[in-house]
Each structure stands twice: as structure tokens, then as C-alpha cells.
């Protein structure tokens, strides 16, 4: 009796077909994902090209022209930049902007760091984090109007409280000395919650083991803050500083709705002066030149901050 063989049939490769290597499989998969990735990237890329890259290039070109929106641009070379260098109002606006940036960044960074540390050490409540973030959900225009009413010299509740304390009413937004610090503090109030949550996220990334080891060695809370928290938080603080400095140099909304550049140009920040030159006096070429100068200044400050703070490196091993 013959027993049939139970060995499996041999699997011969199809003629002309060769097994794909792992690298070939990866390339084939990548080619298949390419159209899908391009589809997802396309809206953001289109927005970048239309609303950022093209206006930037157009602005650089207009900075070398005389353009009033009603007639074609007329090439004038470096005349706008020469005018800018010799314009005392431009330099005064830049000085006012720098004053605002220093006050805003200094107060906001310290306050946000304190709030973030308190959120980490004292509570884990998501409700409190939401309350801290609430002012940031308000637009700059609404925040400016609210504080304009609160700080009104005659009817504002803020000056009512000042008067009840036996102090003379303070013209917060109508006095050359008080105006810029007041605007800076208004924007600190609005943005400090968002900045604090960014720093809080950085604090969450620091391992608890580091603090436990320091406590075993007898380190105090203050010493751990300066020797552990601040060094390990440096990359996050660097990014926060870069973002807040760029945003502070672009302040416009709060000034426009509260003081309109006054009193006596005391709050005539650079963005407001650029806006007035372009849409108030129709000097689009000169406004473009100042915008390009601001772009160059911000780029230089960003690169300098990035290098000095070593934002791309972390002390976590």
C-alpha cells in the first residue's frame, strides 16, 4: 500500500518577482504616504505663502519705493531708510517700545514663574489652572476697554478705590509718566496666566527624584529652587522669553483703544507709529521701511537670546 507523501508543496517564487528588502518596503510606504501628507500640509502651507511670505516680500519691496496706495509704487532706493534714521519720532517710538518691553517682560516673567511654582507645589486643581488662564481668553481690545473704564480718572472704580484710601486720583492713562507702565501692566494681567502655564508644563518635566535626592541631602526649598528648578527650567524659560519679547515689540491693540499714542506721544509705540504712517498719512513705503527695520531688530534679538540662553540644550541628562 502506497502512502501519499505529507510534505508540503514547495513554494516557488513567481517568475519575475523578487522579495522586497526592508529599505525598499519603507520607501514604498513613504511614497504611499506622501500624497496624504501633502494633503494635510497644503492648507497650512497655502496660508503661510499667502498671509506671511508674500506680504513680507511685498513689504520689503515697498520699503524701497514711494507708495500712497493711489498711484503705482515709485522706486526711491534707500531714501526711506535714510529718512527713518533721521526721523526723531521713529527713535522716540523705538525708545517708548523698549521701555514697554522691559517693564512687560520683567514683571510678566517673574509673576508667571511665581504662579507656576505655586500651581505645582500647592494644588493640582484643573479649575484653578483654568481660572489663571481666563484673562488670556479675552481679546486685547476688550481687555483694554475694560481697564480704560476701571482706571478712568473721574468715574473709574480703580480711582474710586485710590480716593477711598486718601490718595489723590491718579491719571493712569492720561499722564506721560504713568501711561506706558499702566499699559504694560494691563498686558501683564492678560498674558501672565498663559505664560505661567507654559512654565508649569516645564516644571512638570523635571523628575521628582531630583528633588527627593536634594531633600535627603538637607537642601531647603529656596536652595532647591535656585540650584535645581531654575537650571532645569532654562530651556523653557528661554522659549518663553523669545515668544514674549517678540509679542511685546508688536504691541498695538491696547495702545489703540486706551491712549491712541498719547498723551504727547508718550505711548506712541513703534507699531502704532507704523500704522499711523501707513493708514493715516498713506506713506506705505516709509511704513514698510520701518516694518523691515523692526523685523531685522526682532530677528537679531531672537538669535541673540537663543544663543545666550542655550535654548536648544537641556541640563537633564
Can you offer a commentary on this structure?
- With 317 residues, the protein is an all-alpha fold.
- Helices cover 68% and strands 1% of the residues.
- The chain has twelve helices and two strands; from the N terminus they run H-E-E-H-H-H-H-H-H-H-H-H-H-H.
- It has helices at residues 22-62, 79-85, 88-122, 126-133, 140-150, 157-164, 179-204, 208-216, 221-249, 253-258, 270-280, 284-309; strands at 65-66, 74-75.
- Strands 1-2 form a two-stranded antiparallel sheet.
- Helix 5 crosses helix 7.
- The N and C termini lie far apart (74 Å).
Outline the secondary-structure elements:
Blueprint lengths: L21 H41 L2 E2 L7 E2 L3 H7 L2 H35 L3 H8 L6 H11 L6 H8 L14 H26 L3 H9 L4 H29 L3 H6 L11 H11 L3 H26 L8
Antiparallel strand pairs: 1-2
Helix pairs in contact: 1-12, 2-12, 3-7, 3-9, 4-7, 5-7, 7-9, 9-12, 11-12
Write a brief caption for the model:
This protein has twelve helices and two strands. With 317 residues, it is an all-alpha fold.
List the keywords.
single chain; 317 residues; mainly alpha; two-stranded antiparallel sheet; 12 helices; 2 strands; 68% helix; 1% strand; globular; disordered N terminus
In the sheet with the most strands, the strands line up as: 1-2
Tally of individual helices = 12
Describe the main β-sheet briefly. Answer: 2 strands, antiparallel
Order of helices and strands: HEEHHHHHHHHHHH
Portion of residues in helices? Answer: 55-70%
| Total number of strands | 2
Coarse shape: globular
Gyration radius over CA: 29 Å
Oligomer: single chain
**Which stretches of 5+ consecutive residues score pLDDT under 50?**
1-6
